[in-house]
Amino acid sequence: MVAGFLADEALASSGNRRGGEAEDCTLLRKPQLVTTVISDFTPEAMMSIHQYNPRGIALVVDEIRALFNSVKRYNNRNNLIENLLTAYSGQPLKVIRKSEARPILIKNPCINIIGSAQTNLLSEIFRAEYMANGLLDRFLFVYPKDRRISGWKRDDGTIARPDLVGQWREVLNRIVSLPYPTGVVLNMADDAEEYFYNWYNGIIEEVNAIEDDAEVESRKMKLNGNAARLSLVFLALKWATDGGGMQCVDLESVQAAIRMIGYYEETYRRIQELIVTSNIGESKEAWSSLLGDTFTAGNAIVAGKRVGLSRRSVYYALKLLCCQPNPLLEKIDHGTYSKLRPNKVAAPCTIALSDGETSGGRAGRCILPQSTNVKRLIPIPLQRCPEIELWTKDVYDWCAR
Question: Which of residues 326, 343, 360 is at a domain's end?
């Protein structure tokens, strides 16, 4: 505030100076656009718009991938990702530009993002850098179970239909019309807070039960922030529709938010399975060929790097291949896996009979392929031949030692 006041004072007192003489003048305040939803923007324009819209802004992009591509467009000058992460954590945003007369300071940033993505381009969004910095952990994903497109149905006008668009407009206009003198902190009611704490403590127990830190999903540690935000959303919607109070966040709003988090996380898991299935489908054979019949998670990560799989994709792949209806892997120990279907299937034991055997002569040889499990061959019926029976008995006794 002090810096902003001094900057305005300096601009107002400077005036127009000609020949060293100051002329009295009044600077007109530059008009500012008051808006909430923006779609086509640069990072600098976004910050400037947010400065004059302290209630918050919403970034609506048709393709969310375009938002991430803009990061590469501006190279090192683009702090969009850092600004989004800072805004999510509730920290103030400050931008200092040479072209600006005064720095931009947003004490309570609120930046919302909504967009869509094609399923075949999801791998471009779930890139390693966005997974590492936690940006995608803060997104809520929606992906339908039934991907069939509903057919159009003609309306002959005989059935009265409610004006859903008008009803939603009324609800949203009432929320937007709330006064915004200063920020207000709403605490949870006692029963709501207890329910919220019990829910998140359950997540903490699940995380603590994982011994290998590499297997911990960082996304789980962001769920409390998303649930708290959704609790406020449901509380505001409840106030706008039922006329309830907004003195504190009630139990019903918290329960609704946690149910929504469960839906979003189920969606996220299905998206991850889709990505992993696609990636593994392209490189499964190459990835699997780099692994032995028994291997560790570390071996799988190293092999994944060689075929272009990220660390998280490898862990999702291990989990998926262990839990699918016909599993290809088995977790035999902590961080240790075994293939249920080895790359090379052992050939059956073949008996080569000489011409002499067919006429009552000496028996032929039992050819045992390399790496064949002898114990598994013993129950296979063999032709009656004393030498073969004696040989297989000796081999079995040797293996049983």
Answer: 343
